[in-house]
Amino acid sequence: MKNITLRIGIVLVLLAVVFLASVVAGPRMINPFTADPISREILFSIRAPRSIVALLMGMALGASGAVLQGILRNPLADPYILGISSGASLSAALGILGGLSIFGSFTIPVFAFIGALFTGGIVGVMGWKRGGIWPERLLLAGVGLSFLFSSLLMLMMTISSDEGLRKAMLWIFGDLSMSDWSRIPYGLFFIAGGIALSAMRARALNALILGDEFAYSLGFSPHRERGMLFVSVGLLTAASVSLGGMIGFIGLLVPHMMRFFIGSDSRGLILSSALGGGILLCLADLISRTIMPPMELPAGIITAIIGSPYFLYLLRKKNVLGV
């Protein structure tokens, strides 16, 4: 246990370093102690909230990936595989392309969050059988809805000629340029709640990974525990997408990295995956801001470039799919 605590401490230190770098670095470095008033305004009004949003989104995706791979017992599972992100993106695109401003600057995040929760509810209902959530039904329902909502989203964007089309495209690929302080409190609330719920059920998740019969023998109800863990994944994914759009591969990549460094015990894996997700997305956002100045790339493109080769590597491993 001391070894795990030490390694989590190392991850925390790395997170602090990367987060600080993401705030002060960019097209030009800004020293907060010697900066002029304009540079300080850029630092605290633009870069700091953007880095915090990246941190929160990465933590949500990393933790939800660790939980989802456990409840589905599938090492290739990703938070977006359940279709929640597609539902959120479709709902957000409706708000963007429709020019809606019902909640002011919160309109698109609210639409995305509602769409994610609605989709999560549908997936949960379709995955429910004989008094509990079944992994196979949950996975198939998520994949089916993901294809449906993605197709509807592409249809909307194909027939649209509105100026909001570019904004919708940036949202889909994970654009953090619109981040501000106003989005952070509600994102922090839901993400902290989702991670806390996951962490409280970590022992049950360990049992579920070893099989339903083993979980029963330890006094856990597999269907009930999967239901609670699914709720946590839904909250985390919904909050992440509503903060900055779709960011892929973090939920797939980070839990595998943390299993190698921390171990497979969910009690340490969930927290370390959250921290690792924050590191990766802060780093991806920093790269997206600095690689082609003055142009900024969506952070989701960077994570996809990093994550795709690793996904193919996992697919090639003989023991991943049992073949």
Write a concise keyword list for the protein shown above.
2 strands; two-stranded antiparallel ribbon; ABC transporter involved in vitamin B12 uptake, BtuC; single chain; mainly alpha; 323 residues
Descriptive overview:
There is one protein chain. By secondary structure, this protein is mainly alpha-helical. 73% of the residues lie in helices and 1% in strands. It has a two-stranded antiparallel ribbon. A hairpin with a 2-residue loop joins strand 1 and strand 2. Helix 1 (2-24) runs antiparallel to helix 2, helix 2 packs across helix 8 (202-209) and helix 3 runs parallel beside helix 10. The longest helix is centred in the first third of the chain and has 36 residues, at 37-72.
Question: How is the secondary structure organized here?
Answer:
Layout: H1 2-24, H2 37-72, H3 84-97, H4 107-126, E1 128-129, E2 132-133, H5 135-159, H6 164-172, H7 184-200, H8 202-209, H9 212-217, H10 222-244, H11 250-261, H12 266-290, H13 299-316
Antiparallel strand pairs: 1-2
Helix pairs in contact: 1-2, 1-12, 2-7, 2-8, 2-10, 2-11, 2-12, 3-4, 3-5, 3-6, 3-10, 4-5, 4-10, 7-10, 11-12, 12-13
